[in-house]
């Protein structure tokens, strides 16, 4: 081995499994959050509608991201947390803007169609009634009824075939989502490996006095406020799904990436695998609550996808 490779070897030998896990988890979490909103943006575009997602969910989540950013800056958390908070605020605005656009557009079309329908209802009813009456007793009317019955049977057969195709398609979508998750994990891991090899990423040393560092009360309050917002944001979406008995218009991959991002962040990236010191843990407790707490709500939404999936074949991206 060349002399130039000696520092890299030394770094490799001094990199503990604890530090490596912290780096990998952090990189996977970052990759999850970067791609998080893309599936829902694509789903809204494909549907031409944002009726499936609750605006209250997005609004409360956006408030949580703003308070998270402010708290992270005030508390002086690691740069990854701060950069991610900035990115997510912009991403939230993009998704909210798209939803408002589709809601306004579809509402305007609905009002226009309703006005047109009201104007033509009276004139449309009379001829239809006349045509129905004129068929009674005429030659060939029984044949027409028989033909209509055959048409209905044919439609029922097609519906049955369509439901089978939809079930098979749903199975394929689950596989695609699983492969997407594996891809995000691979991208995050590869990103950490490249950053480590090039010296961009280095283990963050913990000073002896790190555990006694005082955090401003305002930063703690903002941290807990963001945690409350994150925990409360999904409640309107869960209620909406339950009320409508459908998850149509929602991207399952969106919530899968959210679960992955929260799990890797909360379980290792910036907190547990970075330090197990009590004071460090308590300092980051609000962010831990916000991450791990929402995993329970994500699991609830997964159950709803399972329960109402048959009513929303296009819900999976």
Helix content: over 70%
| % residues in beta strands | under 5%
Structural class given helices, strands, pairing?
mainly alpha
Radius of gyration: 27 Å
- Tally of extended strands? 0
Provide the domain count.
Answer: 1
Uncertain runs are 1-13, 131-144, 207-212, 312-317
Describe the main β-sheet briefly.
Answer: none
Order of helices and strands: HHHHHHHHHH
Mean pLDDT: 75
What is the overall number of helices? 10
- The rounded distance between the terminal residues' Cα atoms is 48 Å
How does this structure look, described?
This protein is mostly helical. The protein has one domain (17-107, 163-200, 210-311). Helix content is 78%, strand content 0%. It has ten helices and no strands. The protein has helices at 6-14, 17-35, 38-47, 55-75, 79-134, 141-197, 217-244, 252-269, 278-283, 285-308. Helix 2 packs antiparallel against helix 8, helix 4 packs antiparallel against helix 5 and helix 4 (55-75) packs antiparallel against helix 7 (217-244). The chain starts with 5 loop residues before the first helix and ends in a 9-residue tail after the last helix. The model is unreliable at 1-13, 131-144, 207-212 and 312-317 (pLDDT under 50).
